[in-house]
Give the backbone structure.
Amino acid sequence: VQLQASGGLVQAGGSLRLSCAASGRTFSSYAMGWFRQAPGKEREFVAAISRSGGSTYYADSVKGRFTISRDNAKNTVYLQMNSLKSEDTAVYYCAGDGWVGKPWRSWGQGTLVTVSS
């Protein structure tokens, strides 16, 4: 599975939606997730969604502000980010075929999200 995501620049309090398109014919067989790595910090888990989209899981730092979703017909996973804060500035990575607390087998190349204050 190859993953490609797109990010951007947004003002604090604003919104941004990340998309990650996966190649391959087995996208619906994998759980998908989002991670991020801020400058000088370790990569951290952000959100995960089950294969069908019926189950989601979020880090406490983004709960209530971010929403993960997927469209299996388009082989795409999304991360809707609302009420963005400067501390959300990071390189965001999508990941496939894993779960919370377990290894993820596929990773995207990362996309920079900058939240300006």
